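Quick one, T. Sequence first:
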Amino acid sequence: MVIEAPYSKYCRTNFKIAIAVCIGGAILFAYDGYLSKYEWSLRRSFYEEHVKEGKPDSDMVFNQEAPFVLIPLAAVLTIWFLIKRNKKIIADEKELIINAKEKIPYDSIQKIDKTYFDSKGYFIITYKKDSRKAGAHDGVEVNRKLNARKYDNLKAVLEHLVTKIT
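Structure tokens:
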């Protein structure tokens, strides 16, 4: 039986909110910084308040420069979201696969610390990493923290791990 824990809806929603805030802020600041000086503008008084004798004050300068920071930030967040949205943890019959990159065989797992899973939503897996590629003779002990805020259905993965280890 294969159990899958996809990237959490909570994290995906947070990315979408941050992208929307960056784009919305860029539009608002660009409007106030560049378009508020025209006669048809709804906020003509903003321009009049923040430009004295043809010189913009610090608020107007901020409104003129912020869109050039917020739009690239929104682009970076979008790329980061597109990379992370397909992350998942898969617990199959032989190993735990984290993001299709890290594979942890069940026989290498030494302990699972689930002390804080109910209260804080995470557990720690301690396993021996195969370090033959690095040139060492013994496996290196590694702690891997898996958080329920980053992955949905992590409780089912934890239960599957516990049954496979014992």
